[in-house]
Amino acid sequence: MAVELDPVETPRGETVYVDRSETRRGAKGPFFLVYTTPDHERRWGYYCSNCESTDTAMDTMGRIECNVCGNVRKPEEWDAAHE
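Now predict its structure.
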């Protein structure tokens, strides 16, 4: 069964596609995976459900943060030495 993706516009005016079935837990709300095309061919980034923004960043540890509202997902493998 194919999942329908929701088109959204990025701050740069590009259209990307949000898959609301693929989530990552955030402190203020989930992050949804975003793709460049509606066929899931190439992953683009994340969509913050808390403020409905695509302006998010991910670091090398897997931590996701929304640059608009500060919603954050902790790293997948956290090590106190990285703080």
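The chain has one domain: 6-76.
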